[in-house]
Specification:
Layout (H helix, E strand, L loop, with lengths): L1 H30 L2 H13 L4 H9 L5 H7 L8 H8 L2 H13 L1 H11 L3 H12 L8 E2 H11 L4 H18 L7 E2 L12 H7 L15 H14 L9 E6 L17 E2 H6 L2 E3 L8 E8 L4 E6 L1 H6 L6 H20 L1
Antiparallel strand pairs: 1-2, 3-5, 3-7, 4-6, 6-7
Helix pairs in contact: 2-3, 5-15, 6-8, 6-15, 7-12, 8-12, 8-15, 9-10, 10-11
Length: about 325
């Protein structure tokens, strides 16, 4: 019996050593990475961030390879007819109407102050987090550190966002190890990346804190401010259906860029008409969408491309527009 107890004690102590060794090894993997070392030095030297605090934070995290795999397979890469089905649904509309009614006065004030339609604000929050119900389960600190270390294609971006996140946490009194978000490090009800949080978030409920995690009112005001600051044009169109008389030579006019590149007059000469009347000199872009067999065409205006500043995807902006229109029509009909 004594031998058995000694053997079990030896095994347990060995297991503890192995666990501690594994944790120390993982911590060293992070702390000795050149990009992490560079970031720690920058924050300590230029932003008065205590080095020992940074070492403690980065020692406590683990690299998460799954976030690298996730960022390589964005939903926006799906064809339009599949992407649309993820967001323009009856459930999204019903939940959106509930959110709209709950925060109607806040939405009204946001539209008045920033000129952004209520339905666009609600739709963005719906597409991003299902109206605050799915804000992400990933550690933001771990996700951004992993992407800095293991995703060289966008290393400079994630280095900047990790730096912004740590500065944001200090400014807003957030515990860096506790903040959860998307696999790419987006935070809160509107899924702002850290740099956008610092630049565009507003205190819209008057409690002297910009809280996008627990305060939908702040999220509403911040979404509106974001679009306003990116030059939203109040009362101007977003996107309309296009009538294409002939697809011959249409490839030369289809716009894959995320800004206007033509005018309505130019498209008319190419055999493309807008489904509604607008000034011929209006800047536009012609969109071609995979509708599951046949192509579908839309004409996008400046405001459409402002939405792509939120997420650099034509599919994203169109899903926001269509969900918003469904919400507006349902709200009007009661």
């Amino acid at each position: 019996m004594i031998r058995v107890r000694l053997y079990m004690r030896w095994c347990l102590s060995g297991l503890v050593i192995m666990i501690c060794f594994g944790q120390a090894s993982r911590a060293m993997e992070v702390l000795t990475h050149p990009e992490v070392e560079k970031l720690i030095n920058d924050l300590a030297a230029n932003h008065n961030y205590p080095r020992e605090q940074l070492v403690e934070l980065f020692s406590a995290i683990q690299v998460q390879p799954r976030v690298v795999e996730a960022i390589k397979r964005p939903f926006e890469a799906l064809p339009w007819h599949r992407y649309r089905k993820l967001f323009v649904t009856e459930q999204h509309i019903k939940k959106g109407i509930q959110f709209w009614k709950q925060y109607e006065s806040t939405l009204e004030r946001a539209e008045q102050e920033y000129g952004v339609p209520k339905q666009v604000i609600v739709a963005i929050i719906g597409v991003e987090t299902r109206y605050g119900k799915r804000m992400g389960r990933h550690s933001v600190l771990e996700s951004l550190t992993t992407l800095l270390m293991q995703y060289p294609r966008r290393r400079s971006f994630f280095r900047s966002e990790l730096k912004h996140f740590l500065l944001l946490a200090r400014e807003e009194g957030l515990e860096p190890l506790s903040v959860k978000g998307s696999y790419a490090g987006a935070i809160g009800v509107p899924q702002f990346i850290a740099s956008s949080y610092r630049e565009y978030a507003v205190d819209f409920n008057g409690d002297r804190r910009r809280n996008l995690i627990d305060q939908p009112e702040d999220a509403i005001g911040s979404v509106a401010n974001y679009l306003y600051r990116h030059r939203w044009r109040a009362g101007k169109p977003i996107v309309v259906d296009a009538v294409v008389r002939s697809e011959a030579g249409i490839d030369d006019y289809v716009n894959g860029r995320l800004k206007v590149n033509s005018t309505l007059a130019t498209l008319r000469k190419a055999g493309v008409e807008a489904s509604l009347e607008f000034n011929d000199t209006a800047g536009v872009g012609l969109l071609r969408l995979d509708n599951g067999g046949a192509s579908q065409y839309r004409i996008a205006f400046d405001n459409f491309y402002v939405i792509t500043k939120y997420n650099r995807s034509i599919h994203y902006a169109l899903a926001v527009y269509e969900l918003g229109e469904a919400l507006r029509k349902r709200q009007v009909s009661g």
